[in-house]
Amino acid sequence: MEISVIPDVFKLAQVFTISRGSRTEAEVLTVRIRDGEHEGWGECVPYARYGETLENVTELIEGVHAPVDRSGLYTLPAGAARNALDCALWDLEAKRAGKRVWELADIPAPGPEITAYTLSLDTPEKMRAQAAENAFRPLLKIKLGTPDDMPRLEAVRAGAPKSTIIVDANEGWSAEIYADLAPHLVRLGVALVEQPLPAADDDALIGMDRPVPVCADESCHDRTSLPSLKGKYDVVNIKLDKTGGLTEALKLREAALAEGYKVMVGCMVGSSLAMAPATLVAQGAMVTDLDGPLLLAEDRSVPLKFDEAGVHPPKAALWG
């Protein structure tokens, strides 16, 4: 068994901006695990918010000594490195067995799921234009978390009056700001608010009215996060780069549903290879947010299919 990791760069279709900054390309790591005639691969997106860089995630991956199995990866922290390795091992196992990953995981065959499409943070005028251009999409996501959020939200609603809207504040609000904005979110038909408060300050959500469902993103990584979410959140956002791979993501989904949470399945900005395993977790989710490839100007040679039915599960030539 041989493990290799290389950096890959995918150009974005346009500048993508959130409250933390802008980018013009997606920088990812591609991991390949070869065992004789078979090779599996996976992708991760190191995220600075969690102290990850291309360099330190590469070091973690290169520190793993083959042979290794998915259970053995739990010696690594939940995060990007474990995600790429875990997904590569799933792909390798599927190729060895001549089966699809969902057969190995003993879950129903996946189908397409409607996915959100994220609008880049910009001036209200430009965000209205973005919304109008994408008004045919059933679900739009807006990145907020700035002092000028209401004009932006009003503009997007005007540009896409029939689309369902979800909002991601990226930890950018205080409890007071959220309380002030909540009635307006209801008025404008917002269906979900992601991580309104900083993860370190989210105790302020306890006892607050939540007229719009509130989703834990930065506050939820894997199953160990669940006890700290009680009384604060209605939904958990499962991202494979946070959980440390498909193995933990499936377990987190099961545990979260058992505790009464609804599930959102999200992503970092990456290629179809990064989204492919997440399509399995997204089955029946309240919200699917796997639009990474839609934001790219270039993608893997066998990309995921996106159409009016949503994002489709991967072909075997891509993953799994």
Give an overview of the whole structure.
It is built from nine helices and 13 strands. The protein is α/β, with parallel strands linked by helices and 320 residues long. An eight-stranded parallel sheet has the order 4-5-6-7-8-9-10-11. A three-stranded antiparallel sheet has the order 1-2-3. Strands 12-13 form a two-stranded antiparallel ribbon. It is globular.
Which terms would index this structure?
single chain; 320 residues; alpha/beta; eight-stranded parallel β-sheet; three-stranded antiparallel β-sheet
Concise summary:
The protein is α/β, with parallel strands linked by helices.
Report mean pLDDT, rounded to a whole number. 95
- Quote the distance from N terminus to C terminus: 18 Å
Shape: globular
Secondary-structure content class: alpha/beta
Low-confidence stretches: none
**Biggest sheet strand line-up:** 4-5-6-7-8-9-10-11
Total number of β-strand segments? 13
Name the helix and strand elements from N-terminus to C-terminus, one letter apiece: EEEHHHEHEHEHEEEHHEHEEE
| Beta-strand residue percentage | 15-25%
